[in-house]
Write a structure and sequence with these properties.
- The complex is a heterotrimer of chains A (333), B (550) and C (277).
- Chain A is mostly helical and 333 residues long.
- The longest helix of chain A is centred in the last third of the chain and has 38 residues.
- Chain A is flat and about 85 Å long.
- Chain B is α/β, with parallel strands linked by helices and 550 residues long.
- Chain B folds into two domains: 256 residues, 3-Layer(aba) Sandwich (Rossmann fold); 163 residues, 3-Layer(aba) Sandwich (Rossmann fold).
- A six-stranded mixed sheet of chain B has the order 6-7-8-3-9-10, sandwiched between helices. A six-stranded mixed sheet of chain B has the order 16-17-18-13-19-20, with helices on both faces. Chain B has a four-stranded antiparallel sheet with strand order 2-1-4-5, with helices on one face.
- Chain C is mostly helical and 277 residues long.
- Chain C has a single domain, classed as MetI-like (MetI-like fold, Orthogonal Bundle).
- Chain C has eleven helices and no strands.
- The chains are: A mainly alpha (333), B alpha/beta (550), C mainly alpha (277).
- Chains A and C meet through α2, α7, α8, α12 and α13 of A and α5, α6, α9 and α11 of C.
Chain lengths: 333, 550, 277
Amino acid sequence: MNDHIPVFPLARLHGRYPLTTRIVGRLLLSLVLLVASSLLIFGGIEALPGDFATTYLGQAATPQAVANIRAELGLDAPAYARYLDWVAGLLHGDFGHSWASGQDIGAQLGSRLSNSLLLAGAAAIIAVPLSIGLGLIAVLYRDRLIDRLINLFSLAAVSLPEFFVAYLLILWLVVKNPVAAFPATVYASMGLGAKLVTIALPVATLVLVVIAHMMRMTRAAIINVMDSAYMETAALKGLSRWRAILRHATPNALAPIINVVALNLAYLIVGVVVVEVVFVYPGMGQYMVDAVTVRDLPVVQACGLVFAAIYILLNMTADILSVLANPRLRHPR
Amino acid sequence: MDKPLETDKRPLLQVRDLRIGATAYPPGEPPRKIEIVKGVSFDLERGKVLGLIGESGAGKSTIGLAALAYGRGGVKITGGRVLLDGEDILGLGRRGIRGVRGTRVCYVSQSAAASFNPAHRLMDQVIEATLRHGLATADEARARAVRLFGLLGLPEPETFGNRFPHQVSGGQLQRAMTAMALCPEPELIVFDEPTTALDVTTQIDVLAAIKSAIEQTGTAALYITHDLAVVAQVADDIMVLRHGETVEHADTRKIIENPDEDYTRDLVNVRAVRHTEAAEQSDRFFEMAGINAAYGPTPVLHDVSLHVPRGQTLAIVGESGSGKSTLARVATGLLAPNTGDVRFDGETLPPQLKHRTREQLRRMQMIYQMADTAMNPRQTVGQIIGRPLRFYEGLRGAGQRRRVGELLDQIEMGQGFIDRYPAELSGGQKQRVAIARALAAKPDLIICDEPTSALDPLVADGILKLLTGLQRERGLSYIFITHDIAIVRAIADSVAVMHRGRLVRFGPKSGALSPPFDAYTDLLLKSVPEMRLGWLEEVLSTRQIESADN
Amino acid sequence: MKQTLRSIPVSAWIGMAGITVAVICALFAPWLAPYGENQIVGDPWAPSSAEYLLGLDNLGRDLLSRLIYGARTTLFVAFVSTVLAFSLGSFLSFAAAAMRGPVDVGLSRINDLLMSIPTLIFALIVLSALPQNMTVLILVMAVLDATRVFRLGRALALDLSTMDFVEAARLRGEGTLWIIFREILPNALTPLLAEFGLRLAFAVLFISTLSFLGLGIQPPTADWGGMVKDNKDGIIFGVSAALVPGAAIAVLTVSINLVVDWLLKRTSSLKGGRGDG
């Protein structure tokens, strides 16, 4: 971070409190990224060619109508003023109003975000332990049949588009053997249990898609640790395999595995977009795709920013946790 | 701690017709089985130390690990027996072998830095085997470890164990690993090149610590190394290995003073190259004056001034971190000094590489320590040597090929190698090609950055002979960077000793390497193992052991 | 040569076969397809028969013909965007690695920023403002993919430029271009080729996903993702027409990944070794 500029007092501080400075630095970086991405999302749309009022009115755009609509949407103010307005609103939880429906975006986002988080959360709770377990098994039976099978399966699963997996599951579990629900429509009034039953298929799809990646990366991370010299030391001390793995491999594999998990959770956030569309699930992803289709820019911007924020947050968590898991930083010289 | 020596007649370790194999994966070819150890047998009595010595590929580490019934990587023990106290440990099975490893036989590796788990404190790791095998209570084990830390000369033995591996130096880690091996009070310890990765002044301390620990605990040891002078200080017997077979096995005195085999004699007489220094050294053909240099805010070189006369060799000697390689970077222009001048044949060179003329670059060439990484793996030997010919002289086509052939002859390899890739060459051959590439530019000065330290002693000797021969023929000047005093004695006209970025000594070899010494040069010279018995005791009696690495 | 061919594992052969079939379909679509791209030949979702091997789609067009034409669109968009992404990403990354200093810092920070928003989300935001045609799609995908190539390329170039043989070339006085093209590039080629495969597979998935969401290739042009969208409503009636293009996408990406897997293994086993790639 600060190795380009010789800031000596900062370097000294970093030498004495490597852990704290690194974490504070990472927090600041995330904040900068968040602000920058809000600028990018707002300014990117601003800079792109095409006038929204014209697009919005389509063929029926008379100059008068365009001017009216621009005034109505506040597009006649300069860009920086609108950006500041937008950000000020965001800080109060005010995401503005949809152009298409006129509804308050904040209210919509609230319920849709919680629906999406339910979906992604349920998928994560199943996928994380499953893929770490499978990764561990693949390592324990390294280069044997079971490892190769897991590898082959995961290579295939990485290559499958989400919607293909989803429709396969629908054909199999809804049409041929009606055991699961489709479409996965949930209402606010439904209980958690009923919701979970309804979203079984989308969750299964997400799990299948994300598990392969996570497992492959977990396997690589653990193998990296297992091949290290201190694991040989453990074996030459006559420790049992399990003792060696629990005591010597785990603390060192933790950081990379945490990283893998966070990365894939971030991937899950994107995965929900397609899965929600397939299953007509009222979440953030579908909200955004619908908004893009009708060019409802305030909604697109709001959704984009929320997705970006979650993504940045997850990556930051991953980095901070792996810093915390590093003994060299926890116990400086 | 002091175990009474058992008077049982049966040797502690009996190895019989040991055969070890592995699968090799040569690039672009189908994998094939190779035999690393081809029927080796020996005995080791209780409390004795056997040195296993040989060049890389001799199979010495593989044999050492076989004493723990362990095969590293894809290595498999394919035949023979390893009897520990009469019991064949190769047939023990997974659970049975755990009763041997870490209790009766322990292991000390070359790289303690990698062998300690970064996540745990040293104490927990040192006493782990003792505790897991139920050999002592936690308090007893801890007390034992503290005693061992003291015995091995580690600082603050009481609290040393509370540190994490990354908080102590390399020499201390190597001693801590020895403590870890001694803690369960094993009958046998396998030392696998325990001092090879250390600087020479650190090596002597660790060596002394290991030797006294072995003597005081009465454990037996297999001591594996490629350095005969080192093993001569600690071993009772020495077994010389080559290509997985025993060359000679005798007591240390016989091996050192009166070996039977030619190969052993070569190993003993290594560094037979002798170069008498030039009398006249006032010529300032290449000169560095008042050099101060830094990496970013970190100063590395402090006011270094030295020179090399035409046709002579300046050896720059120092340990890791002494700044000797940085000096080479300043000379070549890779690192511009903050102050000071580099002068070559009367003209002052621009400090930065990009401002130097092609002619200036041509006259100064460089040879690297790792020939592996110094050559583009995607180019043939012909392309590698041909490029400078093309670049500096515009030589191409048949003319270029002919010159490359001549150069290959000069480095004693022959023209058959012209279309080979570096991966197909041995370490020594690669270094020769690197020399040919430097020669192709027809330089006046070659900077050699530890060109032999990655090579086996006999191969290294060949390279040194080649370099001195070329110097005589062509009047080349060398700046030879090394950490090895023996090489300095062998080839240098003048010597510069570097320590922590400063030049502590500079002058003709005879003067620089004779008393009166400054403190550091004295320490350095006394730390170089000599090929004779009793050297270690002699040195230790004349100097107080201080933890030089702290 | 013979030996090299024999050392290629079966899985890589299968992968290459899959890619070849797709490429042949794409190149010779008008001659291979039994019917026209948008020719209505029968009833919607008619089952497969001797005439229509894979059956008909939601409008009564021949599924096999559309699949073959779809290969053309999907592969074309994926390939062109990947090539663009590679040119852009590797050029900028090598330039950043070669020039260091402010250029490197600036480019790297911009890259970090672009990567801080998930690719799909980024594409959705951009497509909400831009017209949805093929040129825009290709450019958007190329820019987004270039960020990943940039990161890899920069790491590779920095890694290689610290090698002694690159330093030796600099000491000889070689120019930057020679160093990049003669010393660094030949050694970066295999990992870059593997990355190209990964990116290509990703581009196929990505354009298909966008089309499936209705934001990619617009009808009536046939493309695999769009065909899934067209036929998805048939699933609940047990019509598997949507699965056929889905399977085609899967087969193609699996094939590419099989080849990439082999390339990556080859790179790691070649460390410091030779290689004719």
